[in-house]
Amino acid sequence: MHFIIIRDFNAILNKKLDRSNPREIKSVKPNPLHTWLQKQSFTNTYRTLYFFEKKCTWSNTSTSTRIDQVWVSEGLTHGLLEAGIMDMSMTIESDHDIITMCLNLSHLIANLGIAIVKRKAVKRTVFLYEEQIMHENKQDYLDEIWSIIERVIIEAANKSLPKKKVSNIRYTKAKEFNQTYMHRPILQISRWMRYIRDRLDLLIKETDMLEFNLTIEKINTDLQLEIQQAEDI
């Protein structure tokens, strides 16, 4: 069985991301329902897709929070495509916005339910965003951004680049990988991020930033991603 839970929880998970004025409260008291959902492997749809997006669903005259949430059971998480928040302040007389979600259920229709997925040892990546610490330190924050970009690149490569299953032996087929059309851009963006990280306190040349942004643009176009460019980070 599969479940979708959508409601006003009257509670948040992260005071920095789910509240407009995080300094007003010292800490977030765990909500029993949130704790139960996480133990049952439910997914917070909006935060799963938008790791560091700060957007609220309820507001009054002094503060705003993201207390309206959609959670789905583990089997539905595989088909999660989109989650959004629609501003309704000018449409209806309510202090709550509308929360939306889009699911692809083809993996269920094709008889690839939870039991079959587990039996075939198909694995998915779970981002532990609740354990993510928003560092004030500039170096830590850059490392944090770099880790996110690395995960996006790996996920995109797994979805788009040619691959095949092999025995569990550590070896590299460099010749075959060099023939893939995205090999060079992926290496370029990796080198650029290390270049930026190593020169954190130095001024980046305008020509270097332009070349980096062009590389990001090609990755986004070819793999249909939305990696932010240098001037936006």
UniProtKB/TrEMBL annotation:
Highest taxon of the source?
Eukaryota
Q: Which SUPFAM superfamilies match?
A: DNase I-like
Q: What is this protein called?
A: 15821_t:CDS:1
Source species: Gigaspora margarita
